[in-house]
Specification:
alpha+beta; Cyclophilin; ten-stranded antiparallel sheet; globular; Cyclophilin_A-like; 240 residues
C-alpha cells in the first residue's frame, strides 16, 4: 500500500490509485480492510459468466466470506433471476438513482442485495475528495471509518479502460484485487484512476447535481481529502 500523506491514519486501508494526479498520487478511495493490516486477497471469488443476460441471469457469482461485517448481512445469492435495474439512494437531502450496469452483474447483484437488506440505511458517506485529479464522494461503510465492509468479498469485474470513469459513474471501492465489498464512490468531476474498480452503474443529471452540491459544501480537511464538512448520510437505499 502507498500512503496518503493527508490521511496517514487510513494508509493501510487506502485504495490504490496509482494513476491519480500528483496531488493524490498513490491512493484515493479508502478500501475495506482494518487499519494496520495488509489488503485481503482471495483467489476463489471469481465470476462464472456463462451466457449472461442483460439482467445478470445466467451468471453465477462466487461471493466469499472474509473478515468481520461492519453491520450484519447475509451473502448475496450466487445466482438470481431477479436482478434489479436500479438502486435509489436517499442521500444528503436528495435522491441519487443508480442505473445498474449489465456489464458487472455480480457487483450489481451485491449492491442491490445490500440495499434490500438495509445495510446502507443510516450510514455515512465518510470521504470526499476535491483535488484536480480526483473528485469523488465515497460511501458504504456503516462504521464510518473507511475500513468497514460486509464480511464478504465480491468477484472483480473491472472495466477495460480508465475512460469508464466519468462524472455520474458509481464504482466499487477496493484495497486491491478481490477485496471489493460494500464501499463505493460516486464520481462528480475528474477521476484520473486506472481501470481497477468495477463500475456499478451511473446516475443521471439530477443525481449528479445532488453529489455536486454535497461537494460544494467542502471537505473537513485542508488537504481536500477527508469527511464532508457537512455530514452526509444515506438515509435509505432501495433496489427495484
Amino acid at each position: 500500500m502507498r500512503p496518503l500523506p493527508a490521511l496517514a491514519a487510513l494508509a493501510a486501508a487506502a485504495l490504490l490509485l496509482s494513476g491519480c494526479a500528483s496531488a493524490v498520487r498513490g491512493t484515493a478511495v479508502a478500501g475495506e480492510v482494518p487499519p494496520s493490516t495488509a489488503p485481503r486477497t482471495t483467489t476463489s471469488a471469481q465470476a462464472s459468466t456463462s451466457a449472461p443476460g442483460a439482467s445478470g441471469a445466467g451468471v453465477s457469482c462466487d461471493y466469499e466470506r472474509s473478515g468481520t461485517a461492519a453491520k450484519p448481512v447475509d451473502l448475496p445469492p450466487a445466482t438470481s433471476t431477479d436482478t434489479p435495474a436500479k438502486v435509489v439512494l436517499a442521500l444528503g437531502g436528495g435522491e441519487v438513482i443508480v442505473e445498474l450496469s449489465p456489464d458487472t452483474p455480480c457487483t450489481g447483484r451485491s449492491f442491490a442485495h445490500l440495499a434490500r437488506s438495509g445495510y446502507y440505511d443510516g450510514t455515512p458517506c465518510h470521504r470526499l475528495t476535491t483535488s484536480a485529479g480526483l473528485q469523488v464522494l465515497q460511501c458504504g461503510d456503516p462504521s464510518g471509518t473507511g475500513s468497514g465492509g460486509p464480511g464478504y468479498v465480491i468477484p472483480d469485474e473491472n472495466p477495460d479502460s480508465a475512460s469508464a470513469y466519468v462524472p455520474g459513474v458509481v464504482a466499487m471501492a477496493n484495497a486491491g484485487p478481490h477485496t471489493g465489498g460494500s464501499q463505493f464512490f460516486i464520481i462528480y468531476g475528474t477521476c484520473d484512476i486506472p481501470p481497477d474498480y468495477a463500475v456499478i452503474g451511473k446516475t443521471d443529471a439530477a443525481g449528479l447535481a445532488v453529489v455536486t452540491r454535497i461537494a460544494a459544501g467542502g471537505v473537513d480537511s485542508p488537504s481536500g481529502d477527508g469527511p464532508p464538512k457537512t455530514p452526509v448520510t444515506i438515509e435509505s437505499a432501495k433496489a427495484s
